[in-house]
Amino acid sequence: MKRIAYLFLFTLALGMSACKKDSDKSGDIENRTVNILDYGAVADGKTDNTKAIQAAIDDAARTSGTIVIPEGVFITGPIFLKSNTTLNVEKDAVLKGIANMDIYFNAFYPNVFGSISSSVAPYTPALIFADNAQNVKITGDGTIDGSGDDPAFPQENNAKRRPKIIMMINCKNVIVEGVTLRNSAFWVQHYLLCDGVSIRNVNVYSHGNWNNDGIDIDSKNVSVENCHFDVDDDAICIKSDLPIICEDVVVKNCTVKTNCNAIKLGTSGFGGFRNIDISDISITKASEDRFRKWQTSLRWAGISKSITSLTGIALESVDGGILDNVKISGITMEDVQTPIFIRLGDRSRTYSGRVSQIKSITISDVTAKSESLITNSITGVSLGTDNFYADSIILRNIKMTVLGGGNTSQARLSVPEVHDQYPENNMFGNVLPASGFYVRHVKNIVFENVSITQQNDDARPYYYFNDVKGASLKNSTPQSVTEALFIRQISTEDLTVDGEIYDKGKEDPATPPDDPGTIGADGTFTVGTNTYKTMVYGNLRWMVTNSREGISSATTYSGKAEGENGYYYDADNKVNAVPPGWRLPTFEEAQALKAIIDANPNSEGAQYWRSAAGGAYAGINSGSWTLWGEQGVWRLADKADGKKTATLTSNKGVLAVEDGSTKTPRWFSVRCVQAP
Q1: What pLDDT sits at residue 534?
Q2: Is residue 292 part of a domain?
Q3: In which domain, by residue range, is 88 found?
Q4: In angstroms, rounded to a whole number, what is the distance separating the alpha carbons of residues 279 and 267?
């Protein structure tokens, strides 16, 4: 019996040995390399090589192989990577996306993403795509070019269904290393619901189209290291487009150039973010700016350079998710409008049904120089009678040089809640009433070793705290600062400066600076007891405020001269003639409006400006009397009493307005604008 048992075990051992030898033999063909030239690919920059490259991928996938893209320019449509394969783009090789929207559309709808009508925002085509794969690599010293600047792709903000360069969904153990990614038609690379992603030594340059994010991460266990980003849109963008938390992400030793946000958590934050560690990042302006033109489009922001980034660090939780345990350190930045922007909002509750959360953020060892009047802001949100707070925020070892230059009117601006608007440093529609940090609806915030230096004198306080519960400043008092310009606080509790309770700079919340007003569904702007019609032209909403129109000459207002612009005009310093969140038009904007009106004088919008209700579009500089502070334009309407439309007489916006035969200049009815 024993002999039979031993014989069985021996036979089993032989079988196992034979299996091992067979396995070893099969290993001879594993990890083999295939060259796309052997599958009919042609490196002429013209031939569509999609079928040849896909055949090479499919063949390599059978044996865990490497697909080689050799020297030359290879045109291809979308290709689909498989598990246990490596796509190696060799030096001097260019894998170039085909410029044909229909090819991408037909490849992904309905075969990959289902019906076009049912597909959601994150699911868009890509040049290189993998779904539910594991052990996938893209390597090499070559270039992958998305052809995003080709007119075959829509050149407009948020245009739908443009292809990314790389998209991976539900993948495990992903490595992208060494390659250069250029010129995407949409986001450059997107990792969604993946587990284990490593991006190393990747060079991204993409300014060919709108929405050129450098990298979009919506996964877990991700590392991004030693990469360079030079892009039009957000550079390092961590997202949560689905009700699943994006977590355990490490980003370090990268350089960033961008026209938008350099480091951004959001905008989508449906599940949220947890355990994010970002360190040793250098941030500067982008190499080019084809679309943004912030210095022109945001004239009210006082941007000092022609090319700037919106924000260095933008942490946003506005879609019902949570933002928890975020550490950011070792950051240097310049050419940014706003170094730090932290926003808790209530834009969407699609999945959670609750207001978003922000807690446990540490930002340390930052050196920054800003180039606009839009200061740093850290804000929660007020919804009716309930306030929702960003909680437990530490800013440590921050050395910041701010532009400064704010005036006394800007120091008194009220800030609208705009709880459901898209989060951006300029979302409040005006400069903020602080030169350093504007903080509202926040609990347990610490400023430790924070140095703020102004490039220009500023009438705004360095710190503005509104509804802050528990704030501590340690070694963070600016040198030679006056008490009035140090801290302004409203409804703030337990504020300490260097360990001592700080009770100065308090204001009564019962008398806020100014009512920001509201805009109804019909475009009507209501503030106090006053109601104004507004009209949208292009990218601006225009409004006419009252001066002598409808205001009794006997009516007087605190701080305002008799009959002068009834509600808003500051008669003391004649700087601010607009409500909070609005601004005066620039000369160029008024000229553009005039062109719109003249192009179609019978349209509803034109009639608004030509009627008594709309009157004129107005500006700021009136002949030899500088009433409004900066250049602008006025225009009186054609009215039955003989007033005639004025004509432009100088590039400062000076108008000669005829009133009957007297030719007396008339200056009234301030025209102001805001983003629609």
Answers
A1: 82
A2: yes
A3: 38-227
A4: 21
Q: Are residues 199 and 249 in the same domain?
A: no
Q: Is residue 14 part of a domain?
A: no
Claim to verify: residue 561 and residue 473 sit in the same structural domain: no
Task: Give me the residues of the chain with pLDDT under 50, please.
Answer: 1-28, 546-577, 612-669
**Cα(48)–Cα(51) distance, integer angstroms:** 8
Cα→Cα distances 240→67, 197, 202, 274, 320, Å: 32, 16, 23, 11, 11
Query: Are 417 and 520 in the same domain?
Result: no
Q: Which residues contact 429 (CB under 8 A, 6 or more apart)?
A: 416, 418, 581, 582, 583, 674, 675
DSSP string, 494-539: EEEETTEE--TTEE-TTS-S----EE-TTS-EEETTEEE-EEEETT
**Would you say residue 283 lies in a domain?**
yes
C-beta atoms surrounding 280 within 10 Å: 16
| 262 and 188 within one domain | no
**What would the pLDDT profile of 541-596 be if each residue is shown by its tens digit?**
877 664 433 233 333 334 333 333 333 333 333 334 456 667 666 656 666 776 77
Distance CA 264, CA 270 (A): 15
How far from 467 is each of 216, 567, 609, CA to CA, in Å? 34, 27, 41
How many domains in the chain?
3
Residue 628 makes CB contacts below 8 A (sequence gap 6+) with 574, 575, 577, 584, 619, 620, 621, 622, 670
- For residues 194 and 333, state if they share a domain: no
CB 363 within 8 A of CB 314: no
pTM for the predicted model, two decimal places: 0.78
In the prediction, which pLDDT does 538 show? 76
In this structure, the answer to whether residues 347 and 369 fall within a common structural domain is yes
Strand, coil or helix: what is 419? coil
Tell me, what's the pLDDT at 584? 61
Q: Are 593 and 537 in contact (CB under 8 A)?
A: yes
Assess whether the previous peptide bond of 338 is cis (omega < 30° from 0).
no
Question: pLDDT at position 543, please?
Answer: 76
- Which of 146, 138, 264 has its CA nearest to residue 198? 138
Cβ 667 vs Cβ 627: under 8 Å: yes
Q: Select from 390, 315, 318, 304 the least CA-distant residue to 348.
A: 318
12 found inside a domain? no
pLDDT for res 394: 98
Cβ neighbours, 10 Å, residue 625: 10
Question: How would you label 314-332 residue by residue, b for 16+ Cβ within 10 Å and e otherwise?
Answer: bbbbbbbbbbbbbbbbbbb
Q: Is 612 helix (H, G, I), strand (E, B) or coil?
A: coil
